[in-house]
Amino acid sequence: MTVTHRQRVNRPDGRARGAKYRTTVRQKQDAAKSIQDLRITRVQKNERKERTINTSAMPLREGSANASKTKDEKLIRALKKKLRSMEPLIAKQAAGELLTEDQLYKLEGLDDILASLAEITDDITSANISRKKT
Fold this sequence. Notes:
By secondary structure, the chain is mainly alpha-helical. The protein has helices spanning 19-32, 65-68, 71-94, 101-108, 110-133. The protein has a domain at 65-133.
């Protein structure tokens, strides 16, 4: 029988070697490495390079999409989201299906949401008109 010192991938019965065996073999190989095999990973201070940062590619906090929106626009977006969530419930109720208590409670707030949405949009349009005049 020839000895090749190669690691057998499979056991004699054909099963693959286990993870525990592979880790012990790897640990033995790492322990056998000499100091010359290791690489220096630290860079000396005088060899370090200056990095330039491309600020045009980075989104700044002031220029981000969410920061540019006003409170009214955020509120309008939230109210529209609530209305979109109510649309299927309204359709179910119109089709004659029975709704749960939570769904009915949600639909009770429909008038309040529509009123506040109309109020905010009126405020925004009046503010825009006054800005155009000045």
